[in-house]
Each structure stands twice: as structure tokens, then as C-alpha cells.
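Predict structure. Input: histidine kinase, 440 residues.
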Amino acid sequence: MIKTLISIGLWCLAGWLVGTWINANTGWAVLTLGLVAMILVSGVQLSKIEKWVKNIEDPPPASAGPWDDALAVIYRKLRKNREEISELDYAVNSIMLAAEALPDGAITLNEEMQITWCNKMASEHLGLNMETDRNFSIFNILRAPEFAQYGRQPSWPEPLLLHLAKDGREKSLLVQLTPYGVKQFLIVTRDVTQVEKLETTRKDFVANVSHELRTPLTVLSGFLETLHDMPGDSLSAEQRESYHTLMMEQAHRMQAIVADLLTLSTLESSPSINGKPVRVAAVIRNALLQAKVLSSDQHVFVQNIDNKLCVLGIESELTSAISNLLSNAVSYTPKDGTITVSWYITETGTACYSVQDTGIGIASQDIPRLTERFYRVDRGRSRATGGTGLGLAITKHVAMRHHAELHIRSRFGAGSIFSVEFPASRVIVQAEDEGQKAAE
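Output follows.
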């Protein structure tokens, strides 16, 4: 504004000087021309400002005359506002990304309990679709009577455990509803399916261990009480020897269970390592010698063993897994049955150890549960064979620690094939002479 007044004052001075020097009419003409020129220049400047206003993100025009100072202040303010908005957008986006990355589900509701937003995990937990479920009541989407009762409470001090079925699978969700902001609500969901399974497994494990140890303890206790209460000369030497033998059998059974439990605990708690090359052929042959002793020459053993194949691993663990599969085959194969032991490399470069028998076989519904601790298809027969019910669980853990897979194929009454397949990354093929030395 000051620049404009100064310009007008200068033109007035110029007109007065010209009017004094030439004549008054000429002076007025100069003043008029100056004012017209100022109006035209202002028009051009205003036109530039009008164009800039239509695209206010660009810097203001370079020369806007008396408007320069005002436009500079406006542009600085606009730029500062844009920076603040950008920072706010970045913060909001970071918060939204963090909410999407949460391992728990998050759902926001308005005062009418209608869904306004949810993250990806909540969509997986409850099957929500924001394109179709937005602004719908949560009670119309999550149709569980216990949730309806929970959600309509005046307050929610404790979470709710929901058991839902989706795609034929049971899912357990911990749901917590809490108010926030002004008449808004937040639902947090957590998948506790695996936690519940682990808790159930723990309870079953404790119950199974108690059950497995109860029988030998009862037998031992009964015999000891009998021996304690009876006079020393009331039992013959043969009876006393028979009692001692039975007690020793039960004590050995408890020792076997405890030993297998300790083995499982060690496998689960110790870190996995690559180990060193193990001559599996030699381990198999040692296990075969023990299996033949257990068999008492009642079975036919067939060997198909590649002496050159080794795997990276821990020999003691591999010995346990190899022996478990062989002893199971001996225990569950009738007299004169055939047990085929194979150790070979597959077409894909993996190494496979398999034990095939012509035993009693396993029903298809029992196969998925065979590696559970203490699971037995026939409890009476399993105890008669002296098994602890932990052999296949140990074998499975050994396989997992060596990045291998345990496969079970069987048909009831037609025998079984148990195989452990090691990945190609762990397979080592020795030279022929080294393989022969390993066989010796």
C-alpha cells in the first residue's frame, strides 16, 4: 500500500513539474497517463495473482507490485500449513500401519456399536469385510449369544472367550471391549487357539504320565506291602523270586518312561544344530543287531542300505529315532513276519530311512495321532510289548530337529511303512572306499 501511495505521489509531482514548466493542461495529461499506467500494471499484476490462486501450491508470481509482501506472507503460511499437514498425515499413516501390523485384531465402533474400521487381523479372526460391513452393527456380524450378552453390559472389566467355527475349524478368540474417545468403542481380539491346545496337551500329558506310572507303582506297592506283612517263612523261594522278578519288571518300566521323558525334554529344550556327518549305515546296522536280539530269531530281516550316504546331524539323536522305528516293527509284527530296513537316496536328492513290516497295521483314523505322547492304538498290547508310548514322539522330534519329515503309511491288517526323509541340504555322499570302511 505504501508503494502505491509513493507511486501516486511521484506521478503527481511529475504532473506538477510538467505543468509548471510547460502548462497546466500538459501537467494534468502526464498525471492522467501515469495513473492509467498504474491501473494497467495493477490489472496485469491482479491477473497473475488470479492465475496463482487457481494453483496455490506453486510459488506466487515473481513481481506482483504492491502485493509482493502480502503474497509472501500468505505463501509462507500456506507452506508451513502444508508441512504440518504432511507431518500429521505421516503420523496418521504410521499409526494405521502400526495398527495393521498388530498381532491382535482391532475394531473401532461408533456409539451405535456400528463398525467404522478394523485391521487385517480382525478381518481374519471374524471374517470382516470393510467394503460390505462398514456401518453395520457388530451384533449383526458376530452372531454369538454370549457376545451379545457381553457387549450389552454397562462395562467390560474382563475379556470374553469365544469359541467359533470357521471353514470346519474350531477357533478360540479372546475378545475385549473397551470405550475410548467420545462415545466410541474399541474391540481387541486375540487368537488363543494354540494356547488352548497347548493347555489341553499339558493337562492330557500330566494325566497320561500319572496313569502310566500309577500301574507299576501300584504293583510295586502291593508286592512290598505283601512282603512286609507276611512272615518271612510263609513264601517259598520260587514265590519270592517270582515277586522280585515282577517288581524288577515294573521298576524297569518306570525307569524307561522317565528316561524317555527326559529325552523328550532334552530334545524340546536344546537348540537345533547342524551337527557333523553321521554314518547312518553303521547306526542302522547296530540298531539291527539289537532288533534281532529283541526278535529272538522270530522275524525275517531284509536290508537295503546304501553305505555311502551320510547326513549332517547328531548321532545320539539319530540312533534313538532309528532304534525306535525298528523296535516298534519287531514288537508289532507277528512271528515269521518280514521287516525290511532301507536307507537310500531318492530321485530328488533327499535321503530316506524306512522300516517296512508285515505286522498288524494301523487303522487310518489312528495314524494322525500316533506321534502324540502316550497315544496307543491298543493299550493292552502296547503294555505287553513293554513300550512306553513315547517312541514315535521322540522320533518325530528328532526328525524336526534335523529338518526331516516323518511319514507313516499303513493299512489295518496289512503292515506299515515308517520313514524319515532328510532334506538334500543335509545329505552327504561319501566316496566308495569310505562307505566300505563305514560298513566294516
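The chain has 14 helices and 13 strands.
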